[in-house]
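Could someone model ribose-5-phosphate with this protein?
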Amino acid sequence: MGWGTKNRLARIIKSDGRTVMLAADHGYFLGPTSKLENPRKTLEPLIPYADAIMVTRGVVRTSIDPLSAAPIVLRVSGANSIISEDLSNETIITSVKEAVRINASAVALSIYVGAKHEHQTLANLAKLVDECEEYGVPVLAVTAVGKELGKQDARYLALACRIAAELGASFVKTYYCDGFEKVAEGCPVPLVIAGGKKLETERDVLQLTCDAITNGAAGVDMGRNIWQNDNPVAMIKAIRAVVHENASVNEALNVFEKEKS
Ligand code: R5P
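Reply:
Sure, complex below.
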């Protein structure tokens, strides 16, 4: 890994080897997702507590203060929608030059292993990694989103994550599953987990985070379970306690309750 790549990655994954990334790129294929209708309003109070923010260039330009210190993980794959016939039909939508212009700390791209456009999305990843090598920009590969959510078993996720790492991803985003330690074991680069649809209780979210960390994740790249919570700042602070301070679920719940009031 070159100096620039290492330096950029260190802005996202902190010196403890952990990260709390805030995912807010949902609009790229979901449109105005609930509670993210106005990204600036949603993100502004959360940015001080996020180690990085994952967004598209549209949200960067319209909704994030350029003077904000938060590292940007720029989503650069897309050109699909939730109502399209096949979500896996993605291409690269933003150049690496544009990512550098934005001063992104990493770029993110989805791969769809086992889907109709598997080959296309894996080739997108390989091409992006080659281009990013030239500029020292880390690549985050995102696996198993959208309609592929049914495939949340360790065997599938281990396959998808390992392929992403083999193709040169600097870190990988996936979902937590039973047997996650096998996914982590087979993946030689850091793993971060998405939160998925909003869970019923704060305890559920903190348990998910705690389980992921205990079983080998470097952190979270979480969206809906933070900003769809009625107390999003309290939620992200509680998640930080788990990720960066090894807080137990009960300790993190105390953080949530204290911050909420
Ligand atoms: C989906 O493609 C996006 O990368 C989302 O950022 C991702 O699903 C994480 O968000 P959430 O925690 O809401 O699942």
